[in-house]
Fold Glycine cleavage system transcriptional activator.
Amino acid sequence: MEKIRSQLPPMTTLAAFEASARLRSFTRASEELFITQAAVSRQIRILEQYLGVKLFDRAHRRVELTESGQRFQHAVSVALDLLANSAGSIRVDNTPHDLTLGADLSMAHLWLMPRFPEFQARFPDISVNIIASDSEGDCLKSGVDMALLYGDGNWPGFDATLLVSEEIYPVCAPAYLETNAPILDPCDFVEHTLLDLRGDRWDWVDWHQWLTKKKIPFSEDMRSLGFNNLPLLIQAACSGQGIALGWDRLLDHQLENGELVQPLNVSLKTGRGYFLVKRLGVKLTQEATVLENWILEMS
């Protein structure tokens, strides 16, 4: 290595030579390199003295490569291109990237959106694309940096960190309580209009499962109104259309501002929950790490 280094010309001269040879002008080379024309001329002179050959024929407004200069230009251009490509392939890229965050509809609408202005205020230079879908395939497809998903924490090929443990309790609008029969006991729920979550997922808890787990008898013909997604169901509850099952931490905003209340302090814990899911073996970018830490902080 020392022998090779001893045969190399001063490295600072090569950039000046490559730019001058490519642009055929010391002036334009100085502008590209953000140095003075005199500095470019000095670097070329040092290189010519080192090599012992003339590299340029100087004219009044233009320079031309000599035969030796043409041969050397080819070698220097190839070497610098190789160095640039190699450096680019291993360099840590600190330029801002658009992130893609997946989330199911419930988590995106009820948990993420009320909190996301805080992220934007703290990190205004980080752009985030949000994919909201109840299809796990959409939320975990290639190009998605991380996802907020409901389940038991088992996604093969992915790392899952628990954000919110599932705890489910009845909620309704205050106006609903004022205009309907009182609710003094959990058994009273079956006498009311129940807003029910109905979908393709077996692990979504509906009123039948909740009542069964709480050992509350019910009939199959009890009054109910069905929805295939939780955000729409919660909107119906806020407008006083019945009693819904609410998920802890997903309804913080509605409970805090009084849109919803818990008629009774009774809940069901399932052992499932919402998780931050990311692909195993894939290193997050600096911006993605900021987003991940913020999500963990908010949970």
Observations:
- The chain has a mean pLDDT of 89.
- The first strand starts at residue 56 and ends at 58.
